[in-house]
Amino acid sequence: MQPFFDLLFGFVTFIRNFLFLSSIFVPSQPFFFYLKMNITIDPHSGFCFGVVYAIEIAERELKLEKPLYCLGDIVHNNMEVNRLRDEGLIIIEHKDLKNLKDSKVLIRAHGEPPETYQIAVKNNLHLIDASCPIVLKLQNDIQYGFHEMKKKNGQIVIFGKEGHAEVNGLKGQTHDTAIVITHLTEIEKIDFFRPIRLYSQTTMSIEEFLTIVELLKERLNQVNPTGVSDFEWDDSICRQVSNRSGLLQEFSAKYQVIIFVSGEKSSNGMFLYQVCKNVNPKTFLVSTREEIRCEWFSEVNEVGVCGATSTPMWLMQEVAQEIRKFSN
C-alpha cells in the first residue's frame, strides 16, 4: 500500500503547487496591451467666446472685491464652477435673489429676463452683466417681435429647451407667453391661423431649426392654400457653436478612440458627444480625469480629445495627461 500512498501524496503536492503558481502568474484582471499613443486635443473645442467673456469678467471682479454672487452656474461644467468657487465666486439661484441686497451679482452668458433687472433695482444690487452679445441681440429681437405680434394677435415661437437658462431669458421678453418647442411633434402647440414669428435658442442644431422652418411652411400652406401667411423666422443660432458639429465629425473620424470631455449638465455637450459617437462608436464621455478607463486604450495608438463649448481647455489637457499614463 505504501507506493499507493506515495503516489497520492505526490499528486496532491503537484496540484497544490500548481494552484499556488497559478495565483502568482495568472492575472486576476484582464490583460491589456498598450502601444505608444499619439494624443491630440481638438483645437476647435473649448469655451465659446461668450463663456470666455463671462469667466474673464468673473476673475477680474474677484480680484477687485469679494464676495461676488453669480446667478446660476457660470458655465455647465462642475470642474470650472468649482475652480471659480475656490476663488470666491458664490453661486445662487433665482429664489435667493429676492432676499439679497446691496451686493454684486454676475449675470452669466445665458442672459436674464427683465424681472431680474427689476429685482436688482429694488434690492440695490450691482449687476455685472456678462450676457453673451449674441444672446442680448436675440433678446432685443424677440422683444421687438413680441410687441409687433401683440398688435396682430400673433405668436412668438422659440425653438429651444424648456427650462434652459437662455430660454428663460428669451421667454421673459414676452412676459412668458412664448411657445417653446424642442421636438418636431410639438408644433401642434402653434395656432397656424395666427401670425407666427419663429426664433431659436443660440445653441440649437441649425439642421433641426431649418427642418422646423420647412415643416411650418408646409402646415401653413395646408391651412391657407392661397400661400399668403404671416410667418417670419430669424436664424439666431450661434455659428461658433453650430459649426462645431461639422468640425467634430471630421475630428472624430481621424482617431481610433475619442474622449469627449463635458459636464453632464451641458445640453450642448450632450449633443456634441452624440455627434462624435455617431461618427466613431469608440467615443467615451468623461467629466473628469478620474473617469478615464484603462481598457479603452488597449492596442490603440491614436486618441483624440475634444469637448463642448462649456469645457475648459485646462480640463482637456488634464484628461490628455491622464491618458498618457497608458502609453508605452
**Number of DSSP strands?**
12
Domain count: the total is 3
Number of helices: 11
- Helix content estimate: 40-55%
SSE-based structural type:
alpha/beta
How much of the polypeptide forms β-strand, as a percent range?
A: 15-25%
**CA radius of gyration:** 28 Å
Q: Tell me, what's the shape?
A: flat
- Name the strands of the widest sheet in spatial order: 1-12-10-11
Largest sheet: 4 strands, parallel
How far apart, in Å, are the first and last alpha carbons? 58 Å
Mean pLDDT: 88
User: What's the CATH superfamily of the largest domain, by name?
Assistant: 4-hydroxy-3-methylbut-2-enyl diphosphate reductase, catalytic domain
Looking at the overall shape, the CATH architecture of the largest domain is: 3-Layer(aba) Sandwich
Remind me, CATH topology of the largest domain? Cobalt-precorrin-4 Transmethylase, domain 1
CATH class of the largest domain: Alpha Beta
